[in-house]
Specification:
Oligomer: single chain
Largest sheet: 7 strands, mixed
Structural class: alpha/beta
Low-confidence stretches: none
Shape: globular
Helix content: 40-55%
Strand content: 15-25%
Mean pLDDT: 95
Number of helices: 10
Radius of gyration: 19 Å
């Protein structure tokens, strides 16, 4: 069932599985504010039955980053250009960037597991969109790069937080400051990719992962994701307490004594 198909974003739902597809293959799925609004809308439209969300890009590239039209004086039709943003009040620019970021945040919800199927270029905003997901399955031709600094900008679409957590501060700084490409072998080695497969096996690998993710009871996965997501911000005793509380909820539910 198709719930959304506009501005380069298509959302389809099949029971517990939702698929979000970037559909601007002719532009290598370059991103725009309209696409970001559509991505945010896709998250809001998900039915409660959905447990796993897969993010794909049509064509040879996952997403080549921000559409270069954003850097022209006129920008996108009906949208403030970068120059307009720079000239306007700071609070308005902050609010606008926060609105754009909403396209990149809902993928981390505890009630979902999100999987990015990444092939070809995942540059800048494309890299950050892949980082927005919980897991990344990558084709061997994948090319990650954070190119914002080469444009005199910073990564501002929520990608810095997961990048540091995945690869550590020093490597994240080196990747962002140099803007260099991270290819599949390195991506697998440093933890950017959960799995690297030949390009013609990407769909099958994602399908196998979906099957495995949907096998356990939903509430157990939700509780486990919340435990892992919060672990970095807790010390050992706090994590032990969180584990006990979560397990208590699970045992009461299994015994039919849920709150």
């Amino acid at each position: 069932m198709t719930l959304l198909d506009k501005d380069g974003v298509r959302l389809t739902v099949d029971d517990a599985l939702a698929t979000v597809t970037l559909t601007h293959a002719a532009k290598r799925n370059a991103q725009s504010p309209a696409m970001w609004r559509a991505l945010a809308e896709a998250g809001a439209l998900l039915p409660g039955s959905v447990r796993v969300v897969v993010l794909r890009g049509e064509g040879t590239s996952f997403s080549a980053g921000l559409d270069r039209q954003a850097f022209t004086p006129e920008g996108f039709d009906g949208e403030p250009s970068f120059l307009d943003m720079a000239r306007g009040p700071e609070h308005e620019m902050d609010a606008l960037i926060a609105l754009y970021q909403e396209a990149f945040t809902w993928w981390r919800r505890n009630d979902l597991v999100s999987v990015a199927a990444v092939q070809g270029h995942a540059i800048g905003a494309g890299f950050q969109l892949a980082l927005a997901c919980d897991l990344r399955v990558c084709a061997e031709d994948v090319q990650f790069a954070m190119r914002e600094t080469s444009l005199g900008l910073v990564p501002d679409l929520t990608g810095t937080h997961p990048l540091v957590h995945l690869v550590g501060y020093a490597r994240a700084l080196e990747i962002c400051a140099t803007g260099r490409f991270v290819h599949s072998d390195e991506a697998g080695r440093i933890g950017l990719a959960n799995l690297v497969v030949p390009g013609d096996e990407l769909d099958a690998a994602v399908a196998d992962l979906i099957t495995a993710l949907l096998a356990p009871p939903r509430d157990a996965v939700i509780e486990t994701k919340a435990l892992l997501a919060g672990a970095v911000g807790r010390d050992l005793e706090e994590q032990r307490a969180a584990e006990r509380a979560a397990q208590g909820r699970r045992l009461r539910d299994l015994a039919g004594l849920g709150e």
